[in-house]
Design brief:
alpha/beta, six-stranded mixed sheet, binds zinc ion
Length: 468
């Protein structure tokens, strides 16, 4: 068990370039700002490529090309396929000099996550990992938050950290059946609100992630509450205040009472930097932290499945590989868990792995060592079946009625109408999406219906989870 002092000592220790917003008014100023941004992006790109060996560059490029091809052939809407096709051509022509179209690339990856389960992505050798995201963005945004534990898990204060450590201690003494790192939400309902300035892509990723998580179990629910400027957060507390304007991807772990939050904050913040953290997989990862889940490689049994390469990690970063006695071990160890680090996380240099998956670690997916390379830890495509099982374990007994079980993840997708501010959408005449099934109401006449309603070609593609 780490001491409180060394847990608090954790800093990412990596230089981070903040992405700037330009609020210039004149054309020349904007042009100048754009030129500066281009120069910076070029510099960043160079710095990033320096960290990659030619073989790693080649591997990432090949994976992205495969992913774009998959999207072009998928049943995604035409505009998504066109976007993927454009990116595919750029990748084939320009290789990894993708700074100019990084936004488009991220946008296709975000959509790909709606069509792929993590297991299918691995089988097709197109799994997107936290390492791929780091290489694309040129920085490790999941490791960028200062004073976070294990990169992105935030404890509001010494008191809350102490509470967490006490919970750990109680678990070790058999006094509490804790499965996660944080306190599960009362009644299995997590309240949340979105910052008024949240980016459209982060908002989309969050809305998708919330639905996916609530479909994965029979009990975990999310309740949208209003933003309140006078409270600099959500109207009621405890609640998760979701932002995209800060640096990095990070969250407070479990339900956090406001007395533990800094500077009079009433809601616990969860940040998804945009662009960079505004993908479905990263949104799910951070929301699962907010629900109380820890990192998969923190499990006490992890050394049977994973070898930590201590020589490739700065000693100041050892704490990120701390084992948490309270982490769930009831289920099989899952290297594809959306809560697992990738093999280069917190390594001294991007080329040297900080972790090696032992043959046994691949066991639940394949016994064939020739296929091991397809199952990469650090999946940020979406939840695995075992993630859902663990979440249900964490919330068993917390919901009204007591029981909480996971559902079973299917390969196919379904479409659901999008919510607007957490509610079912209605037009000015109180017609909802289902009313637009009626040919008398033409989808073409309402741009919101086209975006929100499945019956108008919009809506949200979601994975299907069926009762077990
Ligand atoms: Zn994390």
């Amino acid at each position: 068990m780490a001491t409180q002092a060394n847990l608090l000592d954790v800093t990412a220790g990596r230089h981070l370039t903040a992405l700037c917003k330009f609020r210039t008014t004149t054309w020349t100023a904007t042009a100048r700002a754009r030129a500066r941004a281009r120069a910076r992006a070029k510099k960043e790109g160079k710095a990033r490529r320096k960290q990659l060996s030619p073989q790693e560059e080649e591997e990432l490029l090949r994976k992205l090309i495969r992913l774009m091809k998959e999207m072009v052939q998928s049943d995604a809407p035409r505009r998504v396929k066109n976007e993927a096709n454009y990116v595919l051509k750029q990748l084939q022509r320009l290789g990894l000099s993708f700074d100019h179209y990084r936004g488009k690339l991220m946008s296709v990856i975000r959509k790909a996550e709606h069509y792929l389960t993590s297991k299918d992505a691995a089988k097709a050798d197109i799994e997107i990992t936290s390492r791929d995201m780091a290489l694309l963005m040129g920085t490790r945004l999941e490791e960028s938050k200062k004073d976070a534990v294990q990169g992105d898990m935030l404890f509001a204060s010494n008191e809350q950290l102490k509470q967490f450590l006490e919970l750990e201690q109680k678990f070790q003494q058999g006094q509490t059946p804790s499965f996660g790192a944080g306190k599960p939400w009362e009644g299995a309902i997590m309240k949340y609100c979105l910052a008024p300035g949240i980016s459209a892509s982060a908002k989309d990723a969050v809305e998708y992630a919330l639905r996916q998580i609530s479909h994965a179990t029979t009990c975990v629910r999310f309740e949208h509450v209003e933003y309140d400027s006078s409270k600099n957060g959500c109207q009621s507390s405890p609640a998760v205040y979701i932002t995209s304007e800060d640096t990095g991807c990070w969250a407070y772990v479990g339900e956090t009472p406001s007395e533990y939050l800094p500077d009079g904050m009433l809601s616990q913040q969860l940040n998804l930097q945009s662009p960079g953290c505004d993908t479905v997989g990263l949104a799910i990862h951070e929301i699962l932290h907010a629900l109380g889940m820890a990192h998969e490689q923190s499990r006490a049994d992890r050394d049977q499945y994973v070898e930590i390469k201590w020589d490739n990690i700065e000693s100041t970063q050892y704490v990120n590989f701390e084992i948490l006695a309270g982490a769930d071990q009831q289920r099989a160890y899952d290297i594809l868990s959306v809560m697992h680090y990738d093999v280069n996380a917190f390594s001294k240099n991007e080329g040297q792995p900080s972790m090696k998956i032992l043959d046994r670690g691949y066991g639940i997916y394949t016994q064939d060592s020739a296929l091991f390379h397809m199952y990469q830890p650090g999946n940020r495509v979406g939840m695995t079946q075992l993630d859902a099982d663990q979440l249900a374990d964490l919330y068993a007994g917390k919901a009204d009625g007591g029981t909480c079980t996971s559902r079973e993840l299917q390969d196919e997708q379904t479409c659901e109408d999008k919510l607007v501010n957490g509610l079912a959408w209605e037009d000015e005449n109180q017609n909802g999406c289902s009313d637009y099934d009626d040919p008398q109401l033409e989808c073409g006449s309402n741009s919101v219906a086209q975006e929100v309603c499945c019956s108008c070609g919009g809506g949200q593609k979601l994975h299907v989870w069926v009762p077990k």
